[in-house]
Amino acid sequence: MPEHKELERIASQVRRDVLRMVHGAKGGHPGGALGCAELFVLLYFKIMKHNPAKFSMDAIGEDVFILSNGHISAGLYSTLARAGYFPVKELATHRKINSRLQGHPTPHAHLEGVRIASGSLGQGLSVGIGAAQAKKLNNDNTNVYVLMGDGEQQEGQVWEAVMYAAHHKVDNLIAFIDYNGQQIDGPLKEVMDLGDLGLKYKAFGWEVIEVIGHEFNVLDDAILEAHKVTGKPTVILMKTNMGHGVDFMAGTHKWHGVAPNDDELKNALGQLEETLGDY
Amino acid sequence: MKKYTFTEKKDTRSGFGDAMTELGKTNPNVVALCADLTGSLKLEKFQQLYPARFFQVGIAEANMISIAAGLTIGGKIPFTSTFANFSTGRVYDQIRQSVAYSEKNVKICASHAGLTLGEDGATHQILEDLGLMKMLPGMVVINPCDYNQTKAATKAIAEYVGPVYLRFGRPAIPVFTDADQKFEIGKAWMVNEGKDVSIFATGHMVWEAIKAGEILAEKGIDAEIINIHTIKPLDEKAILDSVKKTGCAVSAEEHNILGGLGESIARTLGVNLPSPIEFVGTKDTFGESGTPDQLMEKYGLTANDIVAASLKAIERKSK
């Protein structure tokens, strides 16, 4: 098992990849991808049972990860490549013509590691529930992890899925919410306040764990705790900082969907150690 | 005109339900999802015999479609079931992203399609679903014509790998196709060979086309009747071979003439063999409450309407 120190080094490289990918494409969504780097790395380099060398759509005997907020694809792509699903140099094609690394992820592009298309928000939790119930039918005791955005909680379908998962006791599913409090038009509280999100999930019958999303040990412990929950699904509310790791991008919605220019990229990369070699 | 008879009337949705019961036994990967309409979709037996493979979703169709997409990750073959309106328009984006674009092996099974839903009125009588679904890349679209064909189609789509939209209906209608038929996706069925006009009919309109063929025969007109049960992929060869012979076409569908089977046929003819074509279908309108027979008559979906369209198409040939 890799130490958290090692995971931090990988996360630094993932952040570099994200910045270089959106810079190279002159567009994309760096803010959320930077904010979820710890979760991506923790899942793919420590928690999940998976086989990057031989990707299988059915995932029999393997954990499944579903990215519901598909716009933070750069973070997922970098993590998948660094974990060995496809060549790291392919990251350079993100958002460009003839690429498997579409703006939003899709199995239509036949990229190893991607099992569902996402981008239109609110669908990933339902998809994860289906994958989790298929595992139960298959007597497969691996897990399904779903990441959603916090703004995405405004979609009605999310709550259809939340109700269903509790009713059907889908306890082999762990949902994460990237709770950075920002959405495109501004702070969530101003655009559409979620109220007490944890209490809402509790009222629907879920186990709720609230953590800081940038500390590996805290996040790791939360997932271990979630694994012990039976008879109901668990949601981990990750308090995150959008744009985390780059001082001028952190804590604002300004970098939700904007790429850095040459100077901004240089500044940002100066704050993140190149640990695994840039692509 | 070939003689077609029937000994009983049955609803096409029962063909779906009975096939699902059989599939439950023969294919362990088949699972069913339903949005609070188990009785209407005739899935009680499947639910009773295979409870672990039946997922009650409640009144949450968007959730149902995306869960179905997730179930395919793990090798399941999910059949979603609700009324046609809630199977398509209500959940179009879920189908588009989670099923079609994601290339998932989901079977979207839709009952109570069209005007023949009857008294509940236009909120439930979708007449736009074939168009919506045929526009999705990779989606197979099937609208069988009676109980036996619906049963055969249901079993056939379980074998096919890829997303499918299967449309059927509520009323009891004549059972006139073979009980032991083999259903071939994308292969039109020659109902009656003729030389004067090609009538291409789908779903409930096939029986009306047969009745129309009999009326036309009395007038000395030899109509070719072809059942297009698969709207997509369209059997273009069958259409072109027929119109090469007859010189004109009529489409008949319980659907808006905009976006339905007729337009697919018109496109095929326009590109390959420009010929007169007339359209029997609803004319860009919503339905309303009424009995199925009253509605089919008011909106121009009877054998007589097919006869009138055929005469017009034949007349246009000589101009």
Number of domains of chain A: 1
- CATH class of chain A, named Alpha Beta
SS field, number of helical segments of chain A: 10
Shape of chain B: globular
Largest interface, chains and sizes:
A-B, 39 and 31 residues
Number of strands of chain A: 7
Distance between the termini of chain B: 27 Å
Write out key terms for the chains shown.
heterodimer; A: 279 residues; alpha/beta; Rossmann fold; five-stranded parallel sheet; two-stranded antiparallel ribbon; 10 helices; 38% helix; 12% strand; B: 319 residues; 2 domains; seven-stranded mixed sheet; five-stranded mixed sheet; 12 helices; globular
Can you describe what's shown?
The complex is a heterodimer of chains A (279) and B (319). With 279 residues, chain A is of the alpha/beta class. Chain A has helices at residues 4-25, 30-35, 37-47, 73-83, 124-137, 156-167, 188-191, 197-203, 216-227, 262-269, and strands at residues 64-67, 144-149, 173-179, 182-183, 186-187, 207-212, 234-239. A 5-stranded parallel beta sheet of chain A has the order 1-2-3-7-6, with helices on both faces. Chain A has a two-stranded antiparallel ribbon with strand order 4-5. The mean pLDDT of chain A is 97. In chain B, the strands form 3 sheets. A 7-stranded mixed beta sheet of chain B has the order 3-2-4-5-7-6-12, with helices on both faces. In chain B, helix 2 links the parallel strand 2 (30-34) and strand 3 (54-56). Classes of the chains: A alpha/beta (279), B alpha/beta (319).
